[in-house]
Design a protein that fits this description.
The complex is a heterodimer of chains A (about 110) and B (about 120). By secondary structure, chain A is mainly beta. Chain A has no helices and 11 strands. The chains are: A mainly beta (about 110), B mainly beta (about 120).
Chain lengths: ~110, ~120
């Protein structure tokens, strides 16, 4: 089956620094999403981005579907950015979907 | 809006018992998703509904799991009988969009412990 790998697995930043998180997938996909899970467990859907680039404030994401990767950029990081970032990909057609999450990147932003 | 509401927030039960998790989506949302998160398996999509109809349940682990959505404001995920390996955090999410996964809003989760 499809493999979804995220890197780095862990990341520690000083507040104000920029970072790039990567999601590689081993096969073609229908769509890709990025999620943030804060230290209290709350999940937030950041981007739905099967291809191209999207921006939302200090966050942006780029997916290059032909090369099977997606990047999540965090600029001017804040302590509230801490948590785990997941990418998830979908394959297949209705009734045969596979929806696979990566193992996540654990980010800690220090004040 | 109060957001997606899940109940109970914590559930501890004994192996073999029936467990029912509940979810109230955001009013007006027409997609509802159930996810499970464990240390071993990470995050998994179990099933999702569109306009109260189950669209894809290929992530449901086995027949002990069932999900229903009797109306637009309520969904249940039932495990019968429960087993210790079902221990996990179960999330419900809802969305309203042309694409089903766009801008999902998650509930706080139900932490299930099966002893």
């Amino acid at each position: 089956g499809i493999q979804v790998e995220q890197s780095p697995p862990d990341l520690i930043l000083q507040e104000g620094a920029n970072s790039t998180l990567r999601c590689n997938f081993s096969d073609s996909v229908n769509n890709l999403q990025w999620f943030h899970q804060n230290p209290w467990g709350q999940l937030i859907n950041l981007f739905y981005i099967p291809s191209g680039t999207k921006q939302n404030g200090r966050l942006s994401a780029t997916t290059v579907a032909t090369e099977r990767y997606s990047l999540l950029y965090i600029s001017s990081s804040q302590t509230t950015d801490s948590g785990v970032y997941f990418c998830a990909v979908e394959q297949g057609t209705s009734g045969t979907y596979k929806y696979i999450f990566g193992t996540g990147t654990r980010l800690k932003v220090l004040a | 809006d109060a957001g997606v509401i899940q109940s109970p927030r914590h559930e501890v039960t004994e192996m073999g018992q029936e467990v029912t998790l509940r979810c109230k989506p955001i009013s007006g949302h027409d997609y509802l998703f159930w996810y499970r998160q464990t240390m071993m398996r990470g995050l998994e999509l179990l099933i999702y509904f569109n306009n109260n109809v189950p669209i894809d349940d290929s992530g449901m682990p086995e027949d002990r799991f069932s999900a229903k959505m009797p109306n637009a404001s309520f969904s249940t995920l039932k495990i019968q009988p429960s087993e210790p390996r079902d221990s996990a955090v179960y999330f419900c999410a809802s969305s309203f969009a042309g694409a089903p996964y766009d801008e999902q809003y998650f509930g706080p989760g139900t932490r299930l412990t099966v002893t």
